[in-house]
C-alpha cells in the first residue's frame, strides 16, 4: 500500500526482484470487470495514495495560462475526491457511485453526472504524473516529450504506467441538485417511451439530464408495504437539475420548463423529488449497486433514441429477468439505464477521433446494462442477453446526425455510423476496433515504447510485440 509516488516507484522496482512480482497488478477502486486489477501474484493497492486538493493558477501546458485544477492522487475514490473539495466551490468530474476509483475512471473515459455541461474526465486532464513499469517517474502532458503517453492514458486504461497524480481542470460546484424519481404507471409505458424519444431529440439544457431506467424492484417501490411482497420490472424516469453556479436558476431554461414535455400525458405511480447538495450525489446511486452479487457493467452508446428501440430493450430486459428466475437466480439488483447526453457535450468533445486513445469526437447517449446474479454457471446466459442489448443498439439506433459532432470536428465516423464502445463499460471479448477504432495500432506501439517487457499485462492488453510473444495480448 504505497502512500507516495516514490513508494509506488519502489514497489514497481521490487516486483522485478521476486517471481511472484512478475505477475503483479495495481488497484485503485477495484471495480474492474476484466480482472485488470487482480493478481495471484502481487497487488499494489493504491488506496493510501489519496491526497486531493484544489490548485489555483496552475499553468495550463496548452495555453500557458493560469487555471484552476483539482489534483488527485491515483488511489482516491469518487467519494473521497468530492469530500476533499467540498466547500472549496470547485470540483472535478467523478464517477456516479462513491466507491469507484478515480484511477480507473480517469483513464477509461470518465462519464460523470455533469458530462453534459463539462464533458468527460479524460478531456479535462491537463497533466499526469506517471510511474512507468521501469519505476521511472515522469510528467506527461499533451505538449511535452511524453505526449504519446498522455494520449494513451486518455482512454487506454491502466496499460502504460501507474498514474500517481492527475491534474483535472476544475469547474464551479453547483450548490444544489434537484433530483426526481418518477415511477411510470403500467398503463403509460408506451407513452413514456414516446415522451423520452421527444425529450432526447429536443432537449438542449446542459444543466439538466434524465435517465430512463428499467429495474427489477419490490412492487410499490419506493413505498413498498409488507403486504405487497414480490418484485416486478419497474420503469423509472430519473431527472436531475443542477443549479448553475454562475447563473443560479437557469441561463438555458427555467427549471420548471426543463422536464415539462417528459411527463406530459403520463400517469405516474409515484413521484419523489428532493434537493440534495452536489457533494452527496455519488452516494445517492450506491444503493443501486449492492455488494454480494456477480455483476456486469456494460453498454454501448446510442445516437437516436426511439420509441421502437426503448420498447425492444424493455422486451429483452423482461426476457432476461424471466430467464434468470427460471434458473433460480435472484436478479433483483439488475438494471438497464439510458443516460441522456447532450449532443456535442456543450463543446467539450475532442475535434478528432485521433486526438485521444478512445475515439470520441461523436458522443452518443450512454446505455448501461448492470445485471446482478449469483452463480458462475449463469455467466454465459447474462452475457448472451448483453449481446442482444448490444445488437439492438447497433441495429436501431446508430445513425449519426451532424448535431452529435463537436462543431469543427474533422473526424470520419466508421462505417456503421456508430460511436465507439465505452472503455469503462467494456463488454467481454470486445474487439479492439469496436472500442479504440483506428487508434488500436498506435496504442500497441505506445505500449511497446513504455512497457517493452509487458510487465503490465492484466485485463485488456494491447498487442505490442512484447505482449504478443509471451501470450499476454488480447486486444487485436
Ligand atoms: C458501481 C459502479 C459504478 C460506476 N460508475 C461509473 C460512472 O459513473 N462513470 C464511469 O465512467 N464509469 C463508471 N463505472 C465504471 C468504472 O469507471 C470502471 O470500472 C473503472 O475502471 C473502475 O476504476 P477503479 O479504479 O474503481 O477500478 P480498478 O479495478 O482499481 O482499476 C481499473 C483499471 O484501471 C487501472 N488503474 C487504476 N488506478 C490507476 C491509476 N492510478 N493509474 C493507471 N491505471 C489505473 C487498473 O490497473 C485497472 O486496469 C462504474 C463501475 C461500477 C462497478
Automatic annotation (TrEMBL):
<dbReference type="InterPro" id="IPR036318">
    <property type="entry name" value="FAD-bd_PCMH-like_sf"/>
</dbReference>
<dbReference type="InterPro" id="IPR016169">
    <property type="entry name" value="FAD-bd_PCMH_sub2"/>
</dbReference>
<keyword id="KW-0285">Flavoprotein</keyword>
<protein>
    <recommendedName>
        <fullName>FAD-binding PCMH-type domain-containing protein</fullName>
    </recommendedName>
</protein>
<comment type="similarity">
    <text>Belongs to the oxygen-dependent FAD-linked oxidoreductase family.</text>
</comment>
<dbReference type="InterPro" id="IPR050416">
    <property type="entry name" value="FAD-linked_Oxidoreductase"/>
</dbReference>
<dbReference type="GO" id="GO:0016491">
    <property type="term" value="F:oxidoreductase activity"/>
</dbReference>
<keyword id="KW-0274">FAD</keyword>
<dbReference type="InterPro" id="IPR012951">
    <property type="entry name" value="BBE"/>
</dbReference>
<feature type="domain" description="FAD-binding PCMH-type">
    <location>
        <begin position="1"/>
        <end position="173"/>
    </location>
</feature>
<dbReference type="InterPro" id="IPR016166">
    <property type="entry name" value="FAD-bd_PCMH"/>
</dbReference>
<dbReference type="InterPro" id="IPR016167">
    <property type="entry name" value="FAD-bd_PCMH_sub1"/>
</dbReference>
<keyword id="KW-0560">Oxidoreductase</keyword>
<dbReference type="Pfam" id="PF01565">
    <property type="entry name" value="FAD_binding_4"/>
</dbReference>
<dbReference type="InterPro" id="IPR006094">
    <property type="entry name" value="Oxid_FAD_bind_N"/>
</dbReference>
<dbReference type="Pfam" id="PF08031">
    <property type="entry name" value="BBE"/>
</dbReference>
<dbReference type="GO" id="GO:0071949">
    <property type="term" value="F:FAD binding"/>
</dbReference>
Amino acid at each position: 500500500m504505497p502512500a507516495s509516488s516514490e513508494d509506488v516507484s519502489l514497489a514497481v522496482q521490487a516486483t522485478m526482484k521476486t517471481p511472484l512480482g512478475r505477475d503483479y497488478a495495481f488497484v485503485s477502486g477495484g471495480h474492474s470487470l476484466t480482472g485488470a486489477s487482480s493478481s495471484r501474484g502481487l497487488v499494489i493497492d493504491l488506496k493510501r495514495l489519496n491526497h486531493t486538493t484544489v490548485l489555483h493558477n496552475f499553468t495550463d501546458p496548452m495555453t500557458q495560462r493560469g487555471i484552476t485544477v483539482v489534483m488527485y492522487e491515483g488511489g482516491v475514490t469518487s467519494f473521497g475526491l468530492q469530500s476533499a473539495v467540498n466547500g472549496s466551490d470547485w470540483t472535478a468530474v467523478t464517477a456516479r457511485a462513491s466507491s469507484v476509483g478515480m484511477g480507473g475512471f480517469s483513464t477509461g473515459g470518465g462519464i460523470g453526472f455533469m458530462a453534459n455541461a463539462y464533458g468527460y474526465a479524460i478531456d479535462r486532464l491537463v497533466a499526469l504524473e506517471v510511474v512507468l513499469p521501469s519505476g521511472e517517474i515522469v510528467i506527461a502532458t499533451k505538449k511535452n516529450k511524453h505526449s504519446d503517453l498522455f494520449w494513451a492514458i486518455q482512454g487506454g486504461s491502466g496499460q502504460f504506467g501507474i498514474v500517481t497524480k492527475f491534474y483535472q481542470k476544475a469547474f464551479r460546484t453547483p450548490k444544489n441538485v434537484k433530483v426526481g424519481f418518477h415511477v411510470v404507471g403500467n398503463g403509460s409505458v408506451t407513452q413514456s417511451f414516446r415522451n423520452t424519444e421527444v425529450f432526447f431529440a429536443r432537449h438542449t439544457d446542459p444543466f439538466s439530464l434524465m435517465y430512463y431506467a428499467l429495474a427489477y424492484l419490490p412492487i410499490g417501490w419506493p413505498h413498498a408495504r409488507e403486504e405487497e411482497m414480490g418484485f416486478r420490472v419497474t420503469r423509472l424516469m430519473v431527472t436531475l437539475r443542477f443549479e448553475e453556479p454562475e447563473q443560479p436558476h437557469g441561463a438555458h431554461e427555467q427549471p420548471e420548463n426543463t422536464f415539462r414535455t417528459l411527463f406530459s400525458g403520463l400517469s405516474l405511480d409515484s413521484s419523489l423529488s428532493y434537493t440534495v447538495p452536489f457533494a452527496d450525489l455519488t452516494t445517492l446511486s450506491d444503493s443501486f449497486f449492492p455488494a454480494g452479487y456477480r455483476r456486469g457493467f456494460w453498454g454501448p452508446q446510442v445516437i437516436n433514441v426511439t420509441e421502437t428501440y426503448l420498447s425492444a430493450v424493455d422486451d429483452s430486459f423482461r426476457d432476461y429477468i424471466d430467464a434468470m428466475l427460471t434458473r433460480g437466480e435472484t436478479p433483483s439488483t439488475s438494471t438497464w439505464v439510458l443516460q441522456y447526453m447532450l449532443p456535442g457535450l456543450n463543446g467539450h468533445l475532442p475535434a478528432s477521433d485521433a486526438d485521444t486513445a478512445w475515439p470520441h469526437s461523436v458522443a452518443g447517449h450512454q446505455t448501461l446494462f448492470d445485471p446482478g446474479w449469483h452463480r458462475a454457471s449463469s455467466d454465459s446466459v447474462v452475457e448472451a442477453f448483453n449481446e442482444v442489448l448490444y445488437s439492438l443498439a447497433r441495429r436501431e439506433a446508430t445513425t449519426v446526425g451532424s448535431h452529435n459532432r463537436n462543431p469543427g470536428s474533422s473526424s470520419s465516423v466508421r462505417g456503421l455510423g456508430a460511436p465507439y464502445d465505452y472503455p469503462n463499460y467494456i463488454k467481454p471479448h470486445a474487439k479492439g476496433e469496436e472500442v479504440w477504432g483506428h487508434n488500436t495500432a498506435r496504442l500497441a506501439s505506445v505500449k511497446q515504447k513504455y512497457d517493452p517487457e509487458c510487465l503490465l499485462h492484466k485485463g485488456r492488453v494491447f498487442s505490442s510485440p512484447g505482449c504478443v510473444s509471451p501470450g499476454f495480448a488480447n486486444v487485436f
